[in-house]
Amino acid sequence: MLDSKIPAGSLDKKWEDYKGHCKLVNPANKRNMEVIIVGTGLAGASAAASLGELGYKVKAFCFQDSPRRAHSIAAQGGINAAKNYQNDGDSVFRLFYDTVKGGDYRAREANVHRLAEVSGNIIDQCVAQGVPFAREYGGLLSNRSFGGTQVQRTFYAAGQTGQQLLLGAYSALERQVALGNVTMYNRHEMLEVVTIDGKARGIIARDLITGKLERHFGHAVLLCTGGYGNVFYLSTNAMGSNVTAAWKATRKGAFFGNPCYTQIHPTCIPVSGDHQSKLTLMSESLRNDGRIWVPKKQNDNRKPADIPEEERDYYLERRYPAFGNLVPRDVASRAAKERCDAGYGVGSSKQAVYLDYAAAIERYGKIEANKRQMHNASAAEITKLGKEVVAEKYGNLFDMYAKITGENPYELPMRIYPAVHYTMGGLWVDYELMTSITGLYALGEANFSDHGANRLGASALMQGLADGYFVIPYTLGNYLADDIRTKAIPTDHPAFAEAEKNVQDTINQLMNIKGTKSVDHFHKKLGKIMWDKCGMARNEQGLKEAIVEIQQLRAEFWKDVRIPGDANEFNPELEKAGRVADFLELGELMCVDALNRRESCGGHFREESQTEDGEAKRDDDNFSYVAAWEYKGPSQFELHKEPLEFVECKPTQRSYK
Amino acid sequence: MEHYNMNLTLKVWRQKNTNAQGQFESYQVPGVSSEMSFLEMFDVLNERLINEGKEPVAFDHDCREGICGACSMHINGRAHGPWAGTTTCQLHMRAFKDGDTITVEPWRSGSFPVVKDLTVDRGAFDRIIEAGGYVSVNTGNAQDANNILVPKDDADAAFAAAACIGCGACVAACKNSSAMLFVSAKVSQLALLPQGQPEKKSRALNMIAQMDKEGFGSCTNTGACEAECPKEISLTNIARLNREYIAAGLTYEK
Asked: With 90 as the cut, is the pLDDT of residue A348 above it?
């Protein structure tokens, strides 16, 4: 049933062999083939640009007012590539190995190896586009290290790497728009996949300005619509990030892979009150130089500066001496939660730990003083120089922290706490990135394939761009080569009419509820259920409760939600309502999946499955598979298992000690 | 940071759609926490309007981290409000005090028509980028990244220009509705890098031509754009754009 279509042959030859043997579409035929791309983040923009360059007729859609605003723009820290520019022992194999291990042996080996293989090409491509990566004085590219690895393979542009990569892809996309190869539809939201004879053949999209529904044909449809972290209401995702496109595909028959795999990022700014609308990430790169600690005494209310060194517990360095503050995200997040739950948290909410830059400022200050031949520099001079170095590396992050909290992180340690950041789960795809609906693809965070149960830092940007620039141009051709005789299907086809009617009926239904509670009211309630019972730690009882609570909340939503305004105008509340309606279904599936997975792995800590010292315990005998869920109707999901085989990367209990 | 609550009066521009006549409406907003962001204060207002059966205020916003460039409020006569180097979403209510009246308008520029309330159409910026804000390199064309050497100072200056988020505050702040700071940021980024050299002339000429076509005004070196830019894009970029433009005009053969 589930055919992942992994090519035969040794792991390091699979992609090369695939590229050598996949079918091609000749240039004249490409001009007649239409491709729909939904979402214009790193995956969507890079795919749209690359396919446009190849000569396909591309239509790209985004709900924002410009493709440049997709949430990839907010990624801060960096992008990994196996360039080994630092001569520190990196290689394609090592990047592959780190990613599979970091994913807690729940990713597909062949996909991850391909990702590592093309990682270097991504950097080359981005530099050629004029992406201003950080550089050394000799003019060469600079690298830094990131959580979960022991080499320096991360390329970065201050703390705005995602912005610079997205603007690179966006400029390539706009170039294709100017050349007429890509037609861009801003402020459009995809609300249905149209299938004809079992193949994806188009979409129904709503023009968000006029409210009109539009029918668009494509020989193939690519969903590049990001992750679903906003199911938790509070997350680091943008306000508009949603699961709608992926969920519509799921309801149409595409399987959803590992929905319960969410990543809780360790370094976010803590919640300040009930008004909180979203959470802000502080790049993980801050853990390179910052030291994380809590007081050794419970409920210690002293100011951080008043707590002497010997009364501080640098708990990551204590528990994981080999990796220290650079343990992977899941490990760091759980350790912070453990300390706070045990009563050692800091700040007014006690739900925070310190991230301290004092030692780094001093260290960098001394290096800088040496560089400048200031051998008798005073402590104040060293601090001043150190702050300058830190400002250059992390300035925008420190500024952001200061604006949000009103505190100066150059003087005071920052307060951080874990928050929902990324979803490793997503639409199930095969090696070619095709979902279980023929002709429907999922790229980037929208698919499930590369990060297993936990994503390492600086690998989301890598995956989005790998899929868009270097994978889909080959795999899509292999599919479309057999479709060259299919003429564009007119959108008055009954399948389009029916799909549009379904969308219209749902909108009418939502508008006619005329209830008493706002969309946000329901979204916040859903988020609380998910965070409490399907968050960093889960157990059977909680998950069973959550499923019932979500079903009740969903019934209440469809009876009592209030959407002001009209459907045939710009109506942000209606947009939100549609997205929350889908989250209310997805949330249930996430809990169903979490309940099924009676093991701890990656970011997913199942309380019934832990070692004696409280570390996560994986169960390879019973759960070494991808859980791909088929939608069978409301609250009905059928599990399909794709067994995971590890040839090169034998699973071991992860240890960062 | 000391936390406090305040009662505020908001005067907000309401406009049903592009063609409708707009007007200010006043709202009392009690109990605003100093820890809220400016947009969270609008969330509170909107929640109340919905509960009262009224239409919430439409405004653009997405990342709420100051990087996507969607948010765009003109607050008390200043693009993105009183804090320097700050987008609307990163402005926090501790910038205000109890009893304040805050006037909030959409970006005001003929080239950014109002869509609804505080939401405007900035499609003109995309079209300016289409005119040349890129390096013409197809996927797969690239050589090894370290074959291109870029002096660190140039890379840093290019990055500083590339930090532009395309929010449009420069246009909104300018008495002439000029888009020169936006255009100069992209032209500068690519003019400073070796990768941008082959197309530098056509880029400057074509992007300026598109800027004029979109109806943006001329630059009179007032500097309001730089003062209000949330990413503190420097006015020196405009000087560089002028040099690029003049040099291209004198030497471009086509």
From this structure: no
pLDDT tens for each residue of B178-229:
999 999 999 999 999 999 999 999 999 999 999 999 999 999 999 999 999 9
- Give me the CATH number covering residue A566: 1.20.58.100
Task: Report the range of poorest mean pLDDT among A147-161, A249-263, B240-254.
Answer: A147-161
**Span A358-367, pLDDT tens digits:** 999 999 999 9
Q: Supply the mean pLDDT for chain B.
A: 97
ipTM: 0.98
Q: Are residues A520 and A408 in the same domain?
A: no
* Cβ-nearest to A136 among B16, B152, B159: B152
* Every domain of chain B and the residues it spans: 5-116, 122-251
Chain A CB contacts of B151 below 8 Å? 135, 139
Is A553 domain-assigned?
Answer: yes
Q: Does A515 map to a domain?
A: yes
Q: Which candidate in A106, A206, A312, A329 is catalytic?
A: A329
Could you tell me the two tokens for B248?
A: 């291209």
Contacts with B113 from chain A: Cβ below 8 Å: none
Which of A562, A309, A255, A563 minimizes the C-alpha distance to A425? A255
What burial letters (b/e) apply to A540-555, b meaning 16+ CB within 10 Å? eebbeebbebbbebbe
- What are the phi and psi torsion angles at A256 (to 5°)? -105, 120
Rounded CA separation A377/A327 (Å): 34
Q: What is the DSSP letter of B56?
A: P
Domain that holds residue A518: 494-643
Pairing of strands A34-38, A57-61: parallel
* Nearest by CB: A69 against B64, B68, B83: B68
In CATH, what class is B122-251?
mainly alpha
Active site residue A135: no
- Of A359, A417, A370, A472, the residue nearest A46 (C-alpha): A472
Token reading at B229 = 């830019």
String of DSSP letters for A197-262: TTEEEEEEEEETTT--EEEEE-SEEEE-----GGGGSSSSS-TT--SHHHHHHHHTT--EE-TT-E
What average pLDDT does the segment A194-209 reach?
Answer: 98
Do the Cβ atoms of B139 and A469 come within 8 Å?
yes
Radius of gyration from C-alpha coordinates of chain A: 24
Supply the pLDDT for residue B253.
Answer: 80
Count of the separate structural domains present in chain A? 2
- CATH superfamily, region B5-116: Beta-grasp domain (3.10.20.30)
